[in-house]
């Protein structure tokens, strides 16, 4: 056959291709040998960069944009062997400025630099966790795209009779399937089932009641129970929960939670939801962040270290509008990893510990930046005129932490640039024996800051959109002629119930109907607003309204309904039900209004607990009368009570 094709098409005949589209086609026992080429590729990139000419900020950018992006394509399909973790070692050496000829001190562990910036790290990728997050995306495709070619191929061979979560590795599996199977735990821990018909959800093993990551059902499985799948808890005739069975087999708190889960009219397929995103869809970024968070929570030192890691100082630090190299210096000061002489001695570097200016005091971080006479002069000459004697007895890092949480952004910009100028002056003295006058150091610092702000301002102005949309719907407006407007709002009470208020008004502003509804709920605001919209649609259906505009102040719910892009979540299921009901009714639209324009519905929602599940056509609740009159004056300024 090959010879016949070769005669027709002048193509070379080869026994096999070692790579296809950059991916290895044959993977034997030695995975390290197969994937070693990617490590060589990274090394060639790092070796070609001149690290001496780059600041920490510059090296960090190159690492994130280039070095850590190289293996992404390969890691999307294969689990890179742990033996290739030398990739991280190479990147780490480049970050600290090491090369073939000279080794530099690694002041902070690679694990710490891989933490998010808001947690005190540098935001570098943990390549192993990132590799697993990429592969979990393939598992997510199997779960959510069962008819894709990849899903059908893998299902036929490895999971013909089970769900993905129950899949085994199988006999003689391909390395691609082994890689996906090995990262299945991420989805199993972070996914949550949205109940449809209950056909695929195991009551006792899957997560479908408690949305907290890692939690399954609390109730102990009764012995010899016939209940296995969630479908066994649903009445097939009414398509509602069977409260008798649920209350008999579950602890009270869990029974109440089950009864609050919304079920659609036609009981669609069960849907798996990812907890890490707002729309319920898995992303590589959310999968990676989830792994980092789980690892941090499981760490033995998590309790003691999280206070500093979760501190707002890191977010405030990286929000300072100063050159990145200055922010990196502040980051190193806060971690006490600046190479002053006292720190070098702790690392075993043989040197004298005396400050090169005073020739008396040991050179520590505090002495270098606030105690040295020259540093004091620089701070005093700066635009913020700081007397460093007022800082002590605080350490410099403690003072920075205080300023990061209590000073203005403008003040922190000056502090960062003056700190960096002091460090430059120190280095000029140590390495070139050059003395820089304090006034010159301040002048140079402020010039650098000014140039940076001009550069950033030019970049922002060039990328700014030409026009922005201004919305003026901050007050209630009447519907068009021959239309009704139904305003609805939700209110969460202190005892955990939801109150809903609904008002129906004509184009002249007069109220022709109102209603309250109350139900048990939780603290999910999106679910409350979605349920409020559903109650409004049921009111329209009950009273046979047509040509009706339903108006609410939950912009997220309005956008989801009108764009028909329903998130994979419980409240997303409710909005999907709302859309179906809306389509079945006559000329019903959903729009958004500012909260100030929805005050009447808001007050009625608060009043709902006093008069629950009540409908009015006249003699409306007194709490909304002032708001109705106020809105009527918008239509007729001459209206009087």
TrEMBL record:
Residues 488-608 form the RNase H type-1 domain. InterPro entries: RNase_H-like_dom_plant, RNaseH-like_sf, RNaseH_domain, RNaseH_sf, RVT-Znf. SUPFAM superfamilies: Ribonuclease H-like (SSF53098). PANTHER family: REVERSE TRANSCRIPTASE DOMAIN-CONTAINING PROTEIN, REVERSE TRANSCRIPTASE ZINC-BINDING DOMAIN-CONTAINING PROTEIN-RELATED-RELATED. This is RNase H type-1 domain-containing protein. One of its GO terms (molecular function) is nucleic acid binding. CDD domains: RNase_H_like. Residues 303-379 form the Reverse transcriptase zinc-binding domain. It comes from the Eukaryota.
